[in-house]
Design a protein that fits this description.
about 80 residues, Helix Hairpins, 4 helices, Ribosomal_uL29_CS, coiled coil, single chain, Ribosomal_uL29_sf
Length: about 80
């Protein structure tokens, strides 16, 4: 079952990074099974790849959100000019 982006956004960065490492190792295992010809569910590779992309997207959103918050706060120099 694909990961829900709403649930991913509720997790903290450490949990997302742990889940990302887990999915990357799962992807490696699935690719090896595909090469050996023992993989039964070939859609698992695509689903895992998409889950990795979802996590990376949420991580990028969190990083961008943090920089946006600090950028939106006026600095003391700007306040002094006004």
């Amino acid at each position: 079952m694909p990961l829900n982006p709403k649930e991913l956004r509720e997790k903290n960065v450490k949990e997302l990074l742990d889940q990302l490492k887990e999915l990357q190792s799962q992807m490696l295992r699935l690719r090896a099974e595909a090469r050996l010809g023992t993989l039964k569910n070939t859609a698992a590779i695509r689903n895992t790849r998409k889950d990795i992309a979802r996590i990376l997207t949420v991580l990028a959103e969190k990083k961008k959100g943090k920089t946006k918050q600090t950028a939106s706060q006026p600095s003391s120099k700007q306040e002094a000019k006004q």
